[in-house]
Model the fold of this input.
Amino acid sequence: DDKHWFTEDYPEAGTAFSLRIRAKLHEEQTPFQKLEIYETEHWGNLMVLDGCVMLTSRDNFTYHEMMAHPVLFTHPDPKQVVIIGGGDCGMLREVLKHKAVERCVQVDIDERVTRASERFFPELCSANDDPRAKLLFADGLDYMRRLEPGSVDVVIVDSTDPVGPAEGLFGTKFMADVWRALGDDGLMVQQSESPILHLDTLLADVYTAMRGGGFTQVRSLQFPVVGYPSGWWSATMAGKGDVDLTAFRETDAAAKPFATEYYNAAMHRAALAIPEFCKKLM
Ligand code: AG3
Done:
């Protein structure tokens, strides 16, 4: 009964991930990618771009919370935030939970992703009307190049895999543009794929690109994402100057005045631990 399953195949790993589906709710070829939405049996709605799982209603909280909150609790006072990608608006929602944030600009190349999210994932779009939010539909590479130097506190890169539209977001040139846009205490975080599958083929390159772009401090967090290849994911933070990326505002995190489903100070601390096979990155 193949038609009752959505499957993402990972040829490089010899594995696949399937979700039992009830219906295909939407399909379109946008100017940038193929966008599909399914209703699943057990995981709510599913968004797929170019055959890759982006999120489900039920599991996206681990990814969005672990990309947004660690970096925001590591920066001393994050006021100006930029999200590159993130068109589903789930990252924007997490960022705006931080009262210190005065403005969060989301820059996704594909407006259709946001329109589909508003329709099929309204819970992710609950902060889109926040006066601090600004949604731009533009090329993130261009946007970053043009930002005024030193004008941003935190950049969050919530991209697709490093092929197709997102490829440039993993390169040294982009990292150098992020470095320049950030203030002295500035931090970035980038989704950096699976430690068990992509350590040598991607994570090592992200470290090289970040260092090549000028960042002296680089550190990954690891956490589960059920719907992504291997179910085991990473986010890599980078900082200017001699910031200690393991020294977050732990007291503030422990007393966070907003609800989360995964993130807390202890999960943040735990996610910073480095498995033995990953130590060669450091
Ligand atoms: N960012 C996508 C991560 C890459 C998933 N890769 C895959 N399924 N092959 C997700 C966007 C969520 N805001």
In short: The pocket of AG3 is lined by residues 8, 52-55, 86, 88, 90-91, 158, 160-161, 191, 228-229 (CB under 6 Å).
